[in-house]
Amino acid sequence: MFDYQIERNKEQDIKAVNAIRILAADSVQKAKSGHPGMVLGSASMAYELWGYHMKHNPKNPKWENRDRFVLSAGHGSMLLYSLLHLFGYGLQIEDLKKFRQDGSLTPGHPEYGHTVGVEATTGPLGAGMGMAVGMAIAEAHLAATFNKADFPIVDHYTFVLGGDGCMMEGISSEAFSLAGTLGLHKLIVFYDSNRISIEGSTDIAFTENVQKRMEAFGFQTITVEDGNDLEAIGAAIEAAKADTKHPSFITVKTQIGYGCPAKQGKSSAHGEPLGEENIKALREKLGWKSQEAFSIPEDVYARYQCLAQNGEQKEAVWNELFAAYSEQYPAEQVRWKKYHGDVDAKALLEDKEFWAYEKKEQATRNLSSIMINRLKERLENLIGGSADLAPSNKSYMKDGGDFGKENYRGRNLHFGVRELAMAAIGNGIALHGGLKTYIATFFVFSDYMKPMARLAALMELPVVYVLTHDSIGVGEDGATHEPIEQLAMLRAMPNFQVFRPADATETAVGWYLAVTSKKTPTALVLTRQNLPQLADSSQEALKGAYIIADAKKEQADGILIASGSEVSLAMAAKAELEKENIDVRVVSMPCMELFEQQDEVYKEKILPRGIRSRVAIETGTDFGWGKYTGIDGANVTMQGFGASAPPEILFKKYGFTIENVVKIMKKVHDKNRKQI
């Protein structure tokens, strides 16, 4: 489809490759910090890919049909920054001079949303591999959804570059096993195989045949023996594109620190500046004429500008194609805009059918299932799934179809037992654009997902986490499956909202917040056991905390604060306390993070400073509750791990009973009354 080509020039290509190396060496040296070795070794493959095989337009970095490139080996960030500078993405030479400095556009590891052209925040090795799989899934689903005969409006590749460390991390195996199963042929992985790690040769800990492993996963495997052979690298890329049945894995054998005589092939090239004398030797070895730092000849810039114009032309051709598509399929064009736009929050808020519920007792995981299936009809671009737990998580979209190599239109994703990769893939789907995504597992297994959830928060990706089987309500499965500290763990994360609903209304609020969020991930923490529907729960839960039952007095004698399954316990305890003339308020607090975003007037209205007798009730650790109960209050929480027994036995064993809550509140109330 794209006829516009750049004429090859070997001398100019070598000079352009070396420009990447020089910029990386100079930037790391000026910062006195960084990782030059990987950049020196992989510059040729990056240049060949970006210059001749990757579809991208620096003048429109968000072009929907661009190829995606993820630098999974994020420590080699100067490789990406050099490319972005040379291709004209807006990074200036002054930005490279500020590498790793406060407030610069060139932080130590690439950050999505901070630097134009960075497709994913990377750094934790292997994470980029998982996110690339998510991007490839998104491309396959959107292509199956929108493409028509002669109108391949979604037709792009996902390229990801990583090294030995990325291949050692387990997340890569999880993600690639799934990618091979799904036959994601638009995924092309570059393996920068320099056989060096921080501690020395990778042979001390990593001797497997990586190519055989990838072949077993279902990848086409290709090997380039010389990492500086542009022609061989180019041929490998085209061979990868020619395989329309399998994802491709290209091993490129490189030398870390290439071109620096004293460092080449050594672990010392990995994570420290080369040194002034070594940089001088590097320039001589590469035949780089200028000794001035950051000095790039104009003919090199001209070469990159010419290559960038090629990408501009490719987008122009696509724009013509999309215009013709829109004319022939106007309904699809409207749908396309809806997929790539924001959720209509006002319409959803006013949608009475979305908020309707039955008054019978139900587990919040069941209520979440109802919400998912209502949202399926309202949000066509909703796609999600579970780590082999859909029947338990209640996360399956009825009649949504199963995503697989025979049906990329399917909206239900089956991740297998791969929680860490699932979370990375969820990030990749969100990063790609055009889709809303959720992922699901048992709450206790959020431990496996945490690193990728953290990246979602860093990148401001509104991924939804459906985390069921919360608390000791899991019961007979025992301590290994009963989450205790996980609420505190997730609540401690910046830009992350943890929503633990008490009933149907609050579950709907949680889902509403999750799908209308633009920059914040949301964890919905849901019960296995049935809960009553609370008569006075309301959309006030949108504020994170609200008065679900107030005292009859003008000022309450105390406040019971609870979340999730413990709200109904607090309500029952309130009724018992009234019999003993202790008139308390009950506050439902499904989301601490949202409550903290409210103004001081609202916070004071819900939790008046003058009411010091406060008791928090939650079947998790008390960590974090002191903010609301203070030194004069108390917490009915877990003080250790759970046990294996029926839930009703465990709730009684650990003090989650009406009698114990009443006793604790009376004790707090009496103590504070004596101090007045």
UniProtKB/TrEMBL annotation:
Keyword Membrane included in the entry's annotation: yes
One of the GO BP terms on file: pentose-phosphate shunt
Which UniProt keywords are given for this protein, alphabetically ordered? Calcium, Magnesium, Membrane, Metal-binding, Thiamine pyrophosphate, Transferase, Transmembrane, Transmembrane helix
Cellular component per GO, a single term: cytosol
Q: Which domain of life is it from?
A: Bacteria
UniProt entry tagged with the keyword Transmembrane helix: yes
Provide the residue positions that the database annotates as binding thiamine diphosphate.
H75, G123, P124, L125, G165, N194, H270, F445
Q: Tell me, what is one Gene Ontology molecular-function annotation carried by this entry?
A: transketolase activity
Q: How is the cofactor bound?
A: Binds 1 thiamine pyrophosphate per subunit. During the reaction, the substrate forms a covalent intermediate with the cofactor.
Transketolase-like pyrimidine-binding domain location is 362-533
The record's listing under PANTHER family reads: TRANSKETOLASE, TRANSKETOLASE 1-RELATED
Task: Name the family the entry cites.
Answer: Belongs to the transketolase family.
Q: What is the protein name stated in its UniProt record?
A: Transketolase
Q: What is the lineage of its organism?
A: Bacteria, Bacillati, Bacillota, Negativicutes, Selenomonadales
Give the gene name.
tkt
